[in-house]
Each structure stands twice: as C-alpha cells, then as structure tokens.
Amino acid sequence: MSENLSELLGRKGLESNFFDELGNLARPDGTPDNEEMARLADAFLVGKANAYGTASFYDFLKPENKGKRVYVCNGTACECAGTQPAVLEKLKSEFKPEEIGHMTCLGRCHENAAFHFRGKNYSGNAITSLGKIVQDPNSIALDRYHVEASEKAILTEPFSDLNTFYAPWKKVLESNPEAVLEEIKTSNLRGRGGAGFPIGLKLEFCKKAQSAVKFIICNADEGDPGAYSDRYLLEQQPHSVLFGMLVSGFVTGAHHGILYIRAEYPEAVTISQDAIDELNNSGLAGKNILGSGYDFEFKIIQAQGSYICGEETALINSIEGQRPEVRVRPPYPAQKGLFNKPTVVNNVETLAALHFIMRQGGGAWKEIGTEKSSGTKLVCLDSYFNRPGVYEVVMGTPMTHVVEQLGGGFRSPVKALQIGGPLGGVVPIEKLDTLTLDFESFASGGFLLGHASVVSIPEDYPMIRYIQHLFDFAAYESCGKCFPCRLGTQRGYEMATKAIDGGYTIDRELFNDLLTTLTEGSLCAHGGGIPLPVKNIMQYFNAELKSYFN
Ligand SMILES: Cc1cc2nc3c(=O)[nH]c(=O)nc-3n(C[C@H](O)[C@H](O)[C@H](O)COP(=O)(O)O)c2cc1C
Ligand code: SF4
Questions:
Q1: Is 127 in contact with 90 (CB distance < 8 Å)?
Q2: What is the number of the ligand 2 atom nearest to the C-alpha of 325?
Q3: 142 pLDDT higher than 90
Q4: How far, in Å, is the centroid of ligand 2 from the Cα of 383?
Q5: 371 within a domain of the structure (yes/no)
Q6: How far apart (Å, rounded) are the C-alpha atoms in residues 450 and 219?
Q7: Whole-number Å distance between alpha carbons of 80 and 458
Q8: Where does 374-431 show beta strands of DSSP type E?
Q9: Which key words are in the record (predicted)?
C-alpha cells in the first residue's frame, strides 16, 4: 500500500472522507458515476484509477451492482437452513432478476429467510408480507431473538440511564491514563474478534507511540456468517461500545474514534449515531469533555460490502479509501495505522467489556472464567436450536451446557457445528462434550473459538457441498493480494464443484498440497485459516467423503 496515498487521502481529516463520499455517490444508482468519481479523485489529489480500483472492489460500489434493488442473504446459516431458494422465487414476483443481488450475511441466522430491501433487513416469515414491505418498508418491526446470560449478565445487563451508565467515565476522566491502563491489563481481557490478543497490550503499544494524532477504531464489520452478537451490542447496547472507545482514547491519547459498521447492518448505523448524538449533547463526548480538557470525537463510516474489510489492515485501507488489500506487518497498526498514524483496532464486544472493568475493576473481570480466558463471551445460536439467540456465557462453560441447556437442543438432527465463522473449526456433534467455551479448549481440540458464532450443519447436508461453499466464500472474499489465497481458494472451489458434478475424483495428495500451501503461504488469516474447517471435515467425515477422493 502506498504511504503517499494514505497521506493524500488523510489530508482533509475525518470530516471529509474519500470512502464515505464514494458511498454517497453510489447511493442513487448502486455504483458511482465515472465523471463524479473522477471529480472526487481530483479533489483528493489521487488518480482516477485509485478511485475506480476502490469502487470496483465492493459489493455495493462496483459497476455490476448497478440497478440492484433487493438482496438475498447467501450466508452459511441461511444456506444450511435451505430457506433461500423460496425467498428468491418470491422476490422474483416483485422484482426483475437483474434487480436482485446477494449479501453475505445479514446476521439474521436465528430465523433465516433473510433479505435486504431499501436499507432494511427482513427475515423469518417477513417474505410472506413482501407486497406490504414493498409498499412501506417500515411495515415490519426489528427482529426478535432470545438474549440471556447463563450466569452473569455483564454485556447483556439492561442499560440503566445515561448518568448512571457514564458515572465510571467521570471517574476515568479524574484519574490518569496509566492507572486506567493498569486496570485493563489486570483484567487480561482478550480480543473477541477472533485472535484473542490482550487489549491492554495493544493500548499500551499505541500509548507509547509518539504522535499528536491517533485513532481508535471499533471493528463492527462482523462478517462471520452465524455471528450477530456485535449487531446485538450495536443495536441494543450502543453505549457499552461507545464507552469502551472513550476509555481506549483516554488511555492512548487518541482524540478520534471511528465505528466502521457494515452496510449489511443499516439499523446498527442509525442507532449508534443516535447514541453518539446523545453523548455529544450531554457533554460526555466531543470537545473538553465535562470540563476535563480531554476531547474525543466519534465518526461512523459505513462499510460497502466486503468480508475481508473485517481484517484490521484491510479495514484501515478501506477507511482511507484505498483498495482494501491486507497490509504486510510490521509495522503494526498501533505504530502506523490509519493515515500512517498510531491506531488501535478492537472488536465491538472487546470494547463493550471495558465498562464492567472500569466499574468493578480489572480483578473482578479476571476472576470470571478460566485463568487464560477471563470474563464472559457472547455466543450466537442459529435457527436449528430450539431457542436461537445471543447468550452470554462464562468462559470455561461446557459446550454441552451451551447447546442443550441454553439452546434447548436441536429442532432437527444436526451432525456438526461450525463454530467461529468460516475460518473456525467444524466440530462433529460427538466431540462437543470434550470442549469448554474458551480459547484454550478449542485450540487444544484442533478447533478455533473465534468470535463464537455457531452454525449448525444438518444431518442431510452433504459435506462435500459444505467444502464447496467454504471455498466459494473464501474465493469471493479474498482480497487478492497474495497468490496462495487468490488462486488456491478458487482451485479448491473448482475441485469440489467438479467432484459434485460427477466424473471427477479429487486427488487427495494434490488437495492436501493445496491446503498446506494455503496454510503456510497466505499473507493473512483469511487464506491461512480456511484449511482448518476443511481439514476437520476431512478428518471426521471421511466415510461420507470417500467417494469424492481417490
Ligand atoms: C478474514 C478476516 C476477517 C475478520 N473479520 C473481523 C470482523 O468482522 N470483526 C472483528 O472484530 N475482527 C475481525 N477480524 C480480526 C481483526 O483482524 C482484528 O484482529 C480484530 O478486529 C482485533 O480486535 P480484537 O483484538 O478486539 O479482537 C478478521 C480477521 C480476518 C483475518
Ligand atoms: S490470504 Fe487472501 S485475503 Fe489474506 S492477504 Fe492473501 S489474498 Fe488477501
């Protein structure tokens, strides 16, 4: 990535953002007009090719998207539930085929049959009221799902009121960054976005970096099919997330906070913006907060449809308006991130956990859960459970408790669960009783906790089709920066497709070579991570797959 481009695109600060402007230009038509895009490029002193290179990357900016009016969810949970062919058929009664696009995923995994129309998401039996929706998109209310804490309600504790909730923020402002950082480090809170990196260390790196300008980014690009816990927090607990960003800013000396929220969550954008306005109006954010001399300004950037933008360096490129390819590390974002300035990127849920730590102390968080995986974790259960929803679970809880007691078991037979998104492991049902919900148990079992979304793979869903679906997703979402992933995910998809179509058996040695190349040669955890679920499937469902391999 070009450092000069980062400087040029950052010249106007956050008030006038190139990527935001591209999104605005695309709104009327689904893609920016070429002449308007050229004018925008001129205004930022970048080339037209840079603007086109960016716009052509995203689902909701690229020219192929022109004229799309409605989008069908093609995420894994909707795919496994088999609801989408009927949704598509029904949509064709109101829209021309060329007006129908796809989105992955709308985070409606608890009831499926999901689609998006005019900036709103619908799921469950909403499709049966399609005519009404087309007349009035507000005719159907927000979706509902179970929200429950298995023991301790921390992230799911109902919001009190602004004054009570922000009392710990007043204490933080009277304290000092060093003391606040110590409290966070004591908690041993680990990132909830997938990698499990301690937030305290990341904040410390950024705090030490010398720069008058620093950024706090909330990664709200929750693209893992099966996950909707970040959506829950943004829509129902937005102040927890904003609180975490304020505290992170205070610790590091950053004065700008950006929420990068996926376009597939339109309601999360408006609800979070309302919460930001509330904070600014009450003096809890903005300039000279509560007379402390500390400033912190929030800004929401709406993403434009790309899974890889959840990867933190692709996300930074995205906000800058560059093509969102993954960056080579080092330098790490905490040293050189957005517009070349020190930047901390954290997941929504990680940030939301800071409220409890500021209120009760880092030691109180550390006491919950296991030694290495402290605190609670949100888990999303899909529509195959009798009680789908978002559950707050103490780290270390047996998975059988999550599935049977919280989820109420399955409504129809399920043979495996993919836990932790498309890069997470595929756990056969008979292995569930060997796992507890924490980073270590999953890693030692050969799986990955990730963001802890749960997608059920029903008994009658062919595993070869699941492999095909995984590679299809990985190939479509690859940023294309490195060969192993750009070519390898496509080859994996082709092999699975040919095997399904018949007359072709996959050479096991060649396939294993492909998986090794992806694991060892990929630049980031996208290409590097996709072999894990595929290997799990090959190990545990060998008998089912036998006829497809030589
Ligand atoms: C392909 C890919 C997609 C990712 N998507 C997300 C995402 O949607 N949300 C997220 O918080 N982290 C995502 N991550 C992880 C981020 O790169 C980063 O580790 C995370 O935002 C850091 O926050 P945390 O430490 O609070 O977890 C993704 C990583 C990869 C490789
Ligand atoms: S592994 Fe895939 S997504 Fe990651 S940098 Fe390489 S091409 Fe991009």
A1: yes
A2: 8
A3: no
A4: 31
A5: no
A6: 14
A7: 7
A8: 376-381, 389-394, 414-419, 426-428
A9: 4Fe-4S, Iron, Iron-sulfur, Metal-binding
Specify the DSSP class assigned to residue 192: S
Q: How many separate domains does the chain show?
A: 5
Asked if pLDDT for residue 518 goes beyond 60, the answer is yes
Instruction: Evaluate if pTM is beyond 0.90.
Output: yes
Same domain, 507 and 542: yes
Question: Given the structure tokens 């609801």, which residue do they identify?
Answer: 83
pLDDT surpasses 60 at 1: no
Atom of ligand 1 lying closest to residue 423 CA: 1
Q: Residue 500 and residue 462: Cα distance in Å, rounded?
A: 10
pLDDT for the residue numbered 493: 98
DSSP state of 346: E
CB-based pocket (< 6 A), ligand 1: 191-195, 197, 219, 221-223, 308, 310-312, 345-347, 350, 524-526
Reference 47, options 93, 92, 5, 94; nearest CA is 5
Residue of 282, 214, 287 lying closest to 249 (CA atoms)? 214
Share of the chain above pLDDT 70, in %: 100
434 in the same domain as 472: no
Decide which of 458, 476, 509 is a domain's last residue. Answer: 458
Q: Are residues 473 and 541 in the same domain?
A: yes
Which of the ligands is closest to the CA of residue 522? Answer: 2
Give the residues across from 138 on adjacent strands. Answer: none
Give yes or no for a contact between 392 and 148, defined as CB atoms under 8 angstroms apart: yes
Task: Say if residue 52's pLDDT is above 90.
Answer: yes
The model's pLDDT over 374-426, given as tens digits with 9 standing for 90+, comes to 999 999 999 999 999 999 999 999 999 999 999 999 999 999 999 999 999 99
Residue-wise pLDDT for 426-437, tens only, equals 999 999 999 999
Note whether 362 and 187 are within 8 A (CB). yes
Give the number of other Cβ atoms within 10 Å of residue 28's Cβ: 9
262 CA → ligand 2 middle, Å: 20
The two tokens of residue 482 are: 């490195």
pLDDT for 104: 85
Cβ-contact 415, 428 below 8 angstroms: yes
| Inter-CA distances, 286 with 211, 246, 279, Å | 20, 10, 8
CA–CA dist 376, 352 (Å, integer) = 11
- By residue range, what is the domain housing residue 106? 70-144
What is the pLDDT, as a whole number, of residue 303? 96
For the CA of 483, the closest atom of ligand 2 is 7
Q: What percent of the chain stands above pLDDT 90?
A: 91
Mean pLDDT (the chain) is 95
Q: Which of 63, 75, 5 minimizes the C-alpha distance to 29?
A: 63
254 & 385 share domain: no
The token duo for 392 is 């707050």
